[in-house]
Every structure is written in C-alpha cells, then in structure tokens.
Amino acid sequence: MEKYGVIILGAGNSSRLGQPKQLLMYKGKTLICQMAEEAIAAVGSPVVLVTGANAPQILEKLCGFAIEIVENEQWSEGMGSSISTGMKAIAKHSGLTGVIIMVCDQPFVNAALLQQLIDQQTIAGKGIIASTYDNTAGTPVLFSNTYFDALTALEGQQGAKKILQQSTDDLALVPFPLGALDIDTAEDYQRLLTGQVAN
C-alpha cells in the first residue's frame, strides 16, 4: 500500500513580518496548527515539523497534535538545511512512497489539495507533483522516494526548486491559484484577514 509523509517547514524567523508567522491566527487557529491539522488529515503519519527560530514559542502552541518535531539549529543558513533536517527525520519511517513538503505560511493549503497531489502522482506516474500558481511551480510539492537522497543532500539557501528545475521531464502540476498568497509581510496578513483574498 502506498504511504506518504509530510514535512512542514516552520524554521524561518519571519524577518519581514516582525513576528513569528507560524503563530499568526487565522480562522481561530495558528497557521502552524492549521497546517499540522491538514497534513494529518491527508496522510495520517508521519508528519514532521521542522522548527528553528522561535522554536520554544512554537512548541508551546502546537495544539497537542501527534506530529514529530525536529529543530534545525542551522535554520539561518536557509530552506535547504531545513528540508535536509526534515528528510533525515522522516527517513526513519521505512516504506514511504513519497513525501510532501509544505510551508507554514500558505493559509489556503488544505487536506484536499494534499490528496490531489497524491492522486495526481498515481494518474501521471511522475516522480514530482508540484502546485502551480503565478506561473511557477512550488509548494506544497510531492516527491517520490527516488528523490529522497537528493532532498537530504540539500543545504543552505538551496531549496527544492533546484530539483524541480532539473527534473522537468518527471514533473506534473496541480493548479493551486491561492498558493500565490503567502504571509511575508503585515500587509499580506491584513489582506488575508480582511478577505481581500477569499478561498
């Protein structure tokens, strides 16, 4: 039976926002709790959350979900180091068909979208299934287990985008127009709260 894991990247320090974006409230929940809930609804387990900056505050607010938490002490080096940290944790679970990598600041990600990525892999038979918005391919993105070594080898600022660009012949896409909204600034957050971007 096919089995998928999820890695939630939540290690950044939200420098442009001025407060931890992981703890912003939306629809009565922190973004990090919302992402954890959707990931569990989609795959069950394993779900691994990678923390870094503000780890103690984030751990306090995790709503008691059954997820694994790993801290990336090198979080300041960039997203690649967080993906690698998450992969090392999730690799302890044998028999995974693939892993979905998601970030904590795309508030419209839900279990249905994550399931769509999984379904699309079955349909398309491709090793990478990415969400597409704003003419780009991005997160959440599913990688089959053939990419686990490459993901684990990432470091520094080098995110998974590099793997996507090198593997276009093994890539299928799922439209996710609302993926274009991620919360980087206070203005982004206000747009979300005032419903200027509706789901």
From TrEMBL:
A GO molecular function annotation here is: nucleotidyltransferase activity
Q: Which InterPro entries match?
A: MobA-like_NTP_Trfase (IPR025877), Nucleotide-diphossugar_trans (IPR029044)
Taxonomically, the superkingdom here is: Bacteria
Do you know which CDD domains this protein is assigned to?
GT_2_like_f
SUPFAM superfamilies from the UniProt entry = Nucleotide-diphospho-sugar transferases
For the MobA-like NTP transferase domain, which residue ranges apply?
A: 6-167
Instruction: Indicate what this protein is called per its UniProt record.
Output: MobA-like NTP transferase domain-containing protein
Q: Which organism does this sequence originate in?
A: Chitinophaga pinensis (strain ATCC 43595 / DSM 2588 / LMG 13176 / NBRC 15968 / NCIMB 11800 / UQM 2034)
